[in-house]
């Protein structure tokens, strides 16, 4: 998932982060065809740059650093695709506005969350659907099992994966990541990695959704956003994710309602 532009963007974001590197799927496996209908490929000048999740027919949630040095005029979202290289029945929609969190701090990695408002609404069908946001903050205790997906590089060469891949990670104590990275980690971040160290631990495109096991449920819920880590340089190190905390859920709702003049109803949350 790395073209030259996305490498530059990621490098800029990681300059002040010790050991920070690319955020790709290494050692994962192919996702079942069209099983993650909410996955969005965020493209800059027709090249894949980041992942994201469709949370409403006209809104995509991703990481704020995916908008660094990016002009909205060249930004598109591609939905309904399993393979970026094949001519599938995909939907390509222009991005109308970018809404990075006002508290986003690139060097520190804080508040790494962004909304993209699409010019037109996505058509919900058998290939495209939305991902439900949590009603409230999901409790993620160490040991919670999660999964992440993206069109990531499958090796340190940064060559794009032809198809959507996924991998499994486990939530760890935040202090585990705090010892690795030179930035201050907050309660709004999740530390997660692969306990077997066979799959890369900062998994998925930047901005891609982290889905974690819900208590008393067999389903995984939208819990976080891929933010930063040392994925390609050291597979033994976990990655850091932006947690969908109450603070961020309130911000998401406020932005969407303001832009849609109150027409976004609570059932979308």
Could you describe the 3D structure shown?
The protein is mainly beta and 269 residues long. It has two domains: 113 residues, Thrombin, subunit H, CATH 2.40.10; 103 residues, Thrombin, subunit H (Beta Barrel), CATH 2.40.10. The strands form two sheets. Strands 8-9-10-13-12-11 form a six-stranded antiparallel beta barrel. β11 and β12 form a beta hairpin. The longest helix has 14 residues. The chain starts with a helix and ends in a 10-residue tail after the last helix.
Helix and strand topology:
Layout: H1 4-14, E1 29-30, E2 39-44, E3 47-56, E4 59-62, E5 75-79, E6 91-100, E7 114-118, E8 145-150, E9 165-172, H2 174-178, E10 189-193, E11 209-213, E12 220-228, E13 239-243, H3 246-259
Antiparallel strand pairs: 1-9, 2-3, 2-5, 3-4, 4-7, 5-6, 6-7, 8-9, 8-11, 9-10, 10-13, 11-12, 12-13
């Amino acid at each position: 998932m790395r073209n030259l532009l996305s490498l530059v963007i990621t490098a800029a974001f990681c300059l002040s982060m010790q050991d920070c590197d690319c955020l790709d799927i290494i050692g994962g496996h192919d996702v079942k065809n069209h099983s993650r209908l909410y996955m969005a490929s965020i493209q800059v000048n027709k090249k894949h740059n980041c992942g994201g999740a469709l949370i409403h027919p006209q809104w995509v949630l991703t990481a704020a650093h995916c908008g660094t040095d990016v002009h909205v005029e060249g930004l598109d979202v591609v939905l309904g695709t399993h393979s970026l290289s094949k001519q599938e029945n995909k939907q390509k929609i222009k991005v109308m506005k970018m809404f990075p969190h006002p508290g986003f701090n690139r060097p520190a990695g804080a508040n790494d969350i962004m909304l993209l408002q699409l010019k037109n609404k996505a058509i919900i069908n058998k290939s495209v659907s939305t991902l439900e946001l949590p009603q409230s903050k999901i409790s993620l205790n160490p040991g919670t099992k999660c999964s992440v997906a993206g069109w990531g590089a499958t090796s340190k060469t940064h060559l794009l994966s032809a198809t959507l891949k996924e991998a499994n990670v486990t939530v760890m104590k935040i202090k585990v990541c705090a010892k690795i990275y030179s930035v201050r980690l907050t309660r709004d971040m999740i530390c997660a990695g692969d306990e077997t160290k066979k799959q890369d631990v900062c998994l998925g495109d930047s901005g891609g959704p982290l889905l974690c096991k819900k208590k008393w449920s067999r389903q995984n819920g939208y819990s976080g956003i891929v933010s930063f880590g040392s994925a390609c340089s050291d597979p033994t190190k976990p990655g850091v994710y932006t947690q969908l905390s109450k603070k961020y859920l309130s911000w998401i709702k406020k932005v969407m309602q303001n832009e849609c003049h109150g027409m976004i109803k609570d059932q979308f949350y």
